[in-house]
Amino acid sequence: MHWGLDVIELEDVGYNYGGGALFSNLSVQLAPGSFYFLTGPSGAGKTTLLKLCYGALTPTTGRVRAFNMDVRGLDRDQMAYLRRRIGVVHQDCRFLDHLPVVENIALPLTVSGRGLQNEQGNLQELMTWVGLSERRDALPPELSGGERQRAALARAVILSPDVIIADEPTGNVDWEMSQRLLRLLVELNHMGKTILVATHDMSLIRAAKNQVQARVLRISNRQLQLAGADL
Amino acid sequence: MSAFRKLIVGDAQADRVVPPSGFTAQLTLFAAGAMAFLCVFALALSLASGRVAHRWSEELARAATLRINAPAEQRAAQTEAALEILRQTPGVASARALSSDEQAALLAPWFGADVPLDTLPVPQLIEVTEADIGYDATGLRLRLQAEVPGAVLDDHTRWRRPLVDAAIALRRLGVVSIVLIGGAMAAMITLAANAALAANAQVIEVLRLVGAQDSYIAQAFVRRFTLRALSGAAVGMVLGMIGVWLMPEASQEGGFLTGLGFQGWGWLLPLVIPLVSALVAFVATTRAARKRLGDLA
Fold it and tell me: How far is A161 from chain B (nearest CA, A)?
């Protein structure tokens, strides 16, 4: 295996959970600018695999490398910097409910010490891009499912990360909203971002066919398979 | 230095990241205020005890009493002989026989103002004032024993030492109380900080998710608790100082109890209490945050 050409690389990764192996010997490389869907049955380990990719979990066996760094060897500060290069959209979004949407979206800027004064233009542009410019002062509990997902996506991309990982981003939204989210992800991919989307929604994958050259990874029977040719 | 500046100046955005917490904020304010209030009194007690110990020690150490127990017909001669010996003794600054009126005044609290001193077998008292170099009490006693058989030298050591010891012990007690108050405040703030950190585990998770370093997260909590302790202690200190100020002024009649206040520059000393409280809160919260964030890995 060659190291260093891909943004995220998993080599013979295994992960034990609840006394047994959730999966073992998984190997995959995400090339810069690629678009991947990760699919598989519920409980197969999609979310776990995503967490391994952004360092929230450590593999039981094997190695995970992000931007040529072994994730296992990173200290807390290095991990924080890694998180700034990987934007994550959770299924449940995870906001700070006491802050308005605009401040939640700007949170990566705040914690990285970049003042919001110079970023107001970019922030407004981003909110318009995800269609939330009218909802900037709303609190997260006041948002609909689709608005929450778009806000989470905006927060994930505000630092212009190299990789965007989304865990079931369309799980709680209707078809129209899922298409809207897909279009945003495709746009980001066209900007050169590496995209990894976990989903069990095959219609979303089929809808992506005409918009982007994406690959589908499938976790099944504790193994990871490339599910057919490019869509 | 930049960390200190960040702590003082703060960051409006960063301050908003941690949600305002209810009972931990009130607990910290109350604990810091109450402890600062108590600390002012402990400090006043400690300083007053120190002053008293010093004064008693100084005043009593420089004075002694010579008592002439002799039959009435020999008393004047022995008194004169004793005064002569005292005049010749190196280290004795002055010696003076108390007059009948002065002796009557000393007995007045027990026998009344009209005590007939002439009819009572009252010894003659001689007040001895010590010079800076001091005198040899043992040598003086031996000489008095040989030349003035009825003379007894009392240099006050017997009852001076327990008084001074008591005052010193009281001052030590005040200092120990201040240390204990600081420890109790540190414990309470640690508990409050731990409760706040535990209640905000989700917030910490989100902050880490978006790339916050642990030092950033810790500082958000540390700054909040430090400023709360500072403001709470400032209020407690002011109330404590008002309480001390309202106490009766020191007077001869009131004795030790009326001297329990601050004097001169001593009034400035309580100003240190809020700063020390903030420092205690800073250290306690930093330790708590570091541990909690480590546990949440």
Answer: 11
